[in-house]
Design brief:
heterodimer, A: alpha/beta, Aspartate Aminotransferase, domain 2, Aspartate Aminotransferase, domain 1, seven-stranded mixed beta sheet, three-stranded antiparallel beta sheet, B: alpha+beta, Translation Initiation Factor IF3, four-stranded mixed beta sheet, 4 strands, 26% strand, globular
Chain lengths: 349, 69
């Protein structure tokens, strides 16, 4: 639906909403309404939202804006590479960095953290490779002080996921609810001491150089996704469980990352012993299935997925599946038959 | 101890070659594996967990595998 509306949104969204003409004023109202709807869905205040055109920039603004030279940046071994890059920059500037490891199930261990006002904690709601979710209450209640700042990475969380109670900044990616690529939402909590780390114009908290039509389409996608959320979630969970059960019963030597109970069912990462991922992916594509992988032989830099490595899950022969509500059981079953055939063939070779 | 040179091999070949070599051994026998693939230690550890064998990292490119089943 959001895709179908894009043409109309481009017709209406090319104007400058700050001008005094009637069409500009109408557009400004549309943007305000969209921000209000977005804030309602994400359970934050409309004036806490900044629209960002680049997700990587969102990470930088959200985290670096909380850091001082004496801050201790705490993040996990399963965080996105953008966060590792920010941590390296902080360290190069004399700052302190602490990385928390995780267990085989993907649960991050915060036990070694000393509570301190100088802590800036990066908290990941859900891992985009494995779907493993972290519990905010369990993870953060013992290590927070009144001065601790928390950046919540909500970029792969479902939009109904709760923020940590004492969050400072948070980032969402519109693609996580089916919106277009190129739109992210940074929330800066009212009253939090956040400073834009980039050169900027004084009146603007964050540069507003985002695409208005894409922003509006993102909010339409969110509203649509919300309407069907319960039905879609139930269907996706069934599909995920179907794949897990089939693999456990029919394909030996498979390593599934994370438990279904602690994971978002939209993602599933499975590694197959003695199988080369690149060959498996090419053969699955020939059968009509486009599948991603975290294995080294499928990556440009020949490095295995740092997420799988941190969890201790097998990194070769890996596939990452994404489940959408429009997938049927019949399609998933056909895929599973193809997967079993290709793995058996790969192991014979 | 059986030496196994997998230098220059990319994943998953060092693991496949180790598993193959292990088949001809009996419980308690060991393999001295040489491998410079960056994924070797991570995958060897996962393989040991899945297959019930034991592994030890000696240094960056040397690993000790003990057959346990």
């Amino acid at each position: 639906m959001a895709l179908g509306l894009l043409g109309d949104l481009y017709q209406r969204g090319w104007r400058d909403p700050t001008k005094i003409h009637l069409p500009s004023a109408e557009l400004a109202i549309l943007i305000t309404d969209a921000k209000t709807s977005l804030a309602k869905h994400l359970k934050i205040s409309p004036n806490e939202i900044e629209v960002i055109s680049d997700l990587n920039l969102g990470f930088h603004l959200g985290i670096s804006g909380l850091l001082h030279s004496n801050s201790r940046l705490i993040h996990s071994a399963v965080d996105r590479q953008d966060i590792f890059a920010i941590a390296r920059a902080h360290q190069n500037n004399g700052g302190e960095v602490q990385v928390c490891n995780c267990n085989l199930a993907g649960a991050i261990d915060y036990a070694a953290i000393q509570p301190s006002d100088k802590n800036v904690i990066v908290w990941q709601s859900c891992n985009r490779e494995t779907g493993v979710k972290q519990s905010a209450t369990r993870a953060l209640e013992n290590i927070s002080t009144s001065g601790t700042k928390i950046f919540a990475d909500m970029t792969f969380a479902n939009f109904r996921s709760e923020l940590p109670v004492n969050w400072s900044t948070a980032l969402w990616d519109a693609t996580s609810w089916g919106g277009p690529k190129g739109i992210a939402f940074l929330a800066i909590r009212n009253g939090v001491n956040w400073v834009n780390p980039l050169p900027h114009i004084d009146m603007e908290r964050v540069s507003n150089g985002f695409s208005i039509p894409l922003f509006l389409a993102s909010v339409v996608a969110l509203e649509n996704s919300d309407k069907d959320f319960d039905t879609d979630s139930h269907q996706i969970l069934e599909l995920n469980q179907r794949v897990r059960s089939f693999v456990a019963a029919n394909i030996p030597d498979a390593d599934i990352a994370g438990n279904i109970e602690d994971s978002d069912p939209r993602k599933l990462s499975i590694s197959f012993l003695y199988v080369q991922a690149e060959e498996l992916l090419r053969n699955l594509e020939k059968s009509g299935y486009l599948v991603d992988s975290g294995s080294a032989c499928s990556a440009a830099d020949l490095a295995p997925s740092h997420v799988l490595a941190a969890m201790g899950v097998l990194t070769h022969g890996n596939i990452r599946l994404t489940f959408r509500a429009d997938l049927t059981i019949a399609i998933v079953d056909q895929f599973l038959t193809a997967l079993k055939t290709e793995i058996e063939r790969a192991r014979l070779d | 101890m059986l030496p196994l040179n997998c230098l220059g091999m990319r994943c998953p070949l060092p693991i496949i070659e180790s598993a193959k070599a292990l088949k001809s051994l009996v419980t308690g026998d060991q393999i001295s594996l040489q491998s410079d693939d960056p994924a070797t230690w991570v995958d060897l550890s996962a393989w040991a967990r899945m297959s019930g064998n034991e592994v030890l990292q000696i240094d960056k490119t040397n690993f000790l595998i003990t057959k346990r089943r």
